[in-house]
Every structure is written in structure tokens, then in C-alpha cells.
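Box 3.1. Reading complex inputs
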Amino acid sequence: MDERAVGSTAERSLAHRLRAGDETALGELYDQYGRFVFGLALRVIGDRQAAEDVTQDVFVSLWEQPERFDADRGTLRAFLGTVTHRRSVDLIRREEARRKREDKTSTDDPRTAELQDGLEVEYTTNRVRDAMASLPSAQRLALELAYFKGHTYRQVAVLLGIPEGTAKSRLRLGLQRLAEILQPEMDQQWA
Amino acid sequence: MGMNPDMAPEPDDDVATYVLDATLDAEARAIAARLTTDPATARTEQRLRAVVAEVGAAASDVEPPRGLRDRVLATATARRPGNELIPATAPELHAIELERAIMVLRSLDDADWSRPLDPPELRGWTIHDLAAHIASNESLLAANLGHPVPGVPETATTNEERTAATHARHRTMTPAETVAELEAAVAAVDAAVRDLDADALTQDIDWWGLPTSIRTSLIIRAFETWTHADDIRRAVGRPHLPPPAPSLNTMGRAATGWIPLMLASNGTDLPDRPARVNLRGAGGASFDVDLSIESEVLPAGTLDPSVEITFDLVEFCRAVANRVPTGGLNFHAVGDLELGRQLVEAVPALAAL
């Protein structure tokens, strides 16, 4: 368990201070979650400069609109993870669209190579590593392609050679299984 | 023939793909609209987002480039200038420090609980003994606030007797049971003080035989708990972890107000000898205080100080808790240097009482 991830009272206090414009709160937020936000953006985008831009954008946007975080609806980590992932995915999809416009004759998706090379996602905590390892490999691969590579379920289906409905089911079953394994301790941490 | 579970579509398929940002744009808009009208789906979304964040955090722990923090803060404050720091209220301060202590206790392995502690007054204690002590004092505060914790049998109100009885009982308990008792005591205190206004916080309760305001009792508990949480961190080889800036500000102000008491405990009463105390670092502020026993803390600039003395705020607080070696508290004094020396020497006096 990460000791920095203090619980709901501290999060509510931090959110209150952000709304009040306390600059030290923004510094503390960055100190607690900067590694996560930058690391997630880097993993999804694969480019350090772009990951820096996303990181800056995530923290600055919360500072500008602190009311967007509602402590009753989830944790700061979940909120920042959602915003970071969304912005990272938007960026790579815009880049994909641009590439397709510029090279209309190409039908190759350069990211299909990742299936041959493997995703090589390393998990730093035992419980997440164990939880991911407990998933059927087809569910785990679908989840990692969608979350860490920013693929839509349609792209996941193409990459894995399965129907779109099957891709969606695998994503749902994988997430539900992870929730069953991880949720009890998360509830305890954030109660 | 049964259907392959991979193939069976379910309503939550859409929520799962949405949480993973794996939907198509038009579908995402439809799901977002559904979340605003369907509380059950919204709960599923929140639950899955927490799981996704847990997985993401475990795979994305990367040191950002040096300088990015400064750029983020500069850009943010250029777009929306910051305001003055808001000091934590005593109930907030108390709740946060107790929660931080519970987090460090929960993060320990079972073997860590039998590790020894290094402060001289805790010689012979293990981390488990100290956790029991924190729980015991918290349950005493709850009882004194009129919210006794069910299942806590100790009634002694002297520190030695209560601690001895608590240690004896908790040595038969598991770490998880000790943490659970601490959590119950924290919940009882929070329930008693959460909705109190500023006037109500000035009401006196008994604290180790002395009438003490609820506000001061909460601040003392926060101080003690931070100090002991750092004792535990040190015992397991971790660095100290200071409280957030608003908490430090509140504790720094309170500790400045205790300086006359510190001097009095050394036999010194210095009426009409004001001091200005500058506390530097996160949460820092400057205060004026007259060094007579009847004084109160005032904003800097209110009094004409005989001495102006500057400390690092965290180090000052740690010295007040007697966690800085004798002579080890760094300071810079201007004015009556002998008065400054007396003041600095008195800083750990309260903790030694």
C-alpha cells in the first residue's frame, strides 16, 4: 500500500484547498500523483515530450476547474487516471487520423507489431500483478491493448481476429474479475 | 450447446469499454448521457474506474522529468493566481494526522510490528506497543468528549497506568485488531467534533487532569500522532513525512502560543518581552507573542518584539515534540540574543513534562 495515498478526509481537504486556490495544495497533488500521471501518459502515448504536455494539461486543468473533482464520486487517483487516459488516447487517435490522411495508400497499422513483440506491461505491486495473472490470457491481452495502447474495442477485435462483441465481452469480464479481486482492499483503504 | 461466456453480450459491456476509453465517439456520448440518468450504471462506472486506476498506477510509476513540477505550478498559477493558505481547523488537523498514522500502520508487514523504537522515553516499546498507546490516548479523548469507545476497558486517567494496562491487553491482540480499535476511537472523536463551531471548540474538557479546550486537545493529539507516526517510519527505515501545509500552519501557530508555557516550565516568566517567531517552509507564517504566561498569539507586526527568531517550521514542530537532539535546533535570532537563547532552550520543555 502506498502511504502517500491518504484517505478520504485528506482528499476532501486537498480538494477544498484546490477550490480555495491554495497553491501548496497543487504542489502536494503533483507530489502525490505526478509519477502516476506522467507514467500513464508515457505508457499510452510512448513519447516523453507528449507525456509531459499531457501531465501539465491534467494538473493545470484541475487547478483551473477544481470543482470537476467530486470526492463523493471517487478518489483523486481515479479522477486523475481518467483524465490522463482520456487526453492521452485523444492525442494518439488524432495522430492516427492525421497519419491516415497523409498516407491514404497505406493499410498497415504500425501498432500491429506490438502483438508480435508482446505488450511487456510490468506491474509494480504484487496484488495487481497477481490479479492480472489470474485473468485468462485472452482477457488480459484485450484489456492491455485497450487501456495501455489506447485501442478501441473495434481495433482490439481486428488485432485479435475476434468479433467486436467478443472483444467487448472480454473487456467487461476482465474488468469485473479485477474488481472482484481488487475491490475489497480498495474499499478498506478508502472507507 | 451453451454459449461461450466471451460471446454473451451484457449491458455492462458498454460501461467497461467506456471506462477504458475503448468506445467509439458516438457511443461514448450515448453512455455518458445514460450515466446521468441511471444511478446503478453510474455506480458500476465509478467502481470500474477505481479498478482501472489501480491497475494503471501499478504499471505507470515513472519519475517525471526534472523541472516539470515547476512548469506545471508556474503555468497553473499564471492562469489562475493562488490565494492565501487556509489553515486547517483543529478537527481537520486531527482527522488527517490520525488517518496518516493509520495508513502507516496498515502499510507495515506483521514482522514490522515487533520492531523496537528509538526515542528514549519509548525504550523497550515495540511498534505494536506504540500503536496501542496511540489507540489508548485516542479512546481517552473520545471518552472525555462524551463518546466512549465500546470494548475499551481501560479507565485509568494517568498516563503510566493507562499505558501499562493498554500494553498488557494489546499484546494478546493482532496488529489488525489494534488498528481496528484505533479506527473506532478516531471515528468516535470525529463524530464528537465534526460539527462543532469555533465557539464550541473553546469549551474545556479534561485532558490528563487539566481543563483543556477541545481545540487544543485535538491539536495536541495531532502533534503527538504525527510525532509517533514518524517514530514508526524511522523504526522501519522510512523517511519522515511531514503533514500538509495547512496542518503545519495550524500546528506552528499553536506551538508558538505554547512558548510562554515552555518558558514557564523552565521557571521563566517574561512579561512585556514580546518575540516575533518566523516559521519558514510549507505552511510557514510569522507571529508575535508576548512571553508572559497570560499571552496569546498575534499576527506579526502587532507587537514591538525584543527578539525576532526564525525557524524551519517542520524542525520547530519536531523540536517541540522533543525529536531534535539537544542543541540541534537551527535558528536565526535578531535583537536580544540572550532572550533568543532562553526561548530556543525552552522549546522541548513541554514534551518533557
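In summary: The beta strands of chain B are 204-207, 210-213, 274-280, 285-290, 297-299, 307-312, 332-335.
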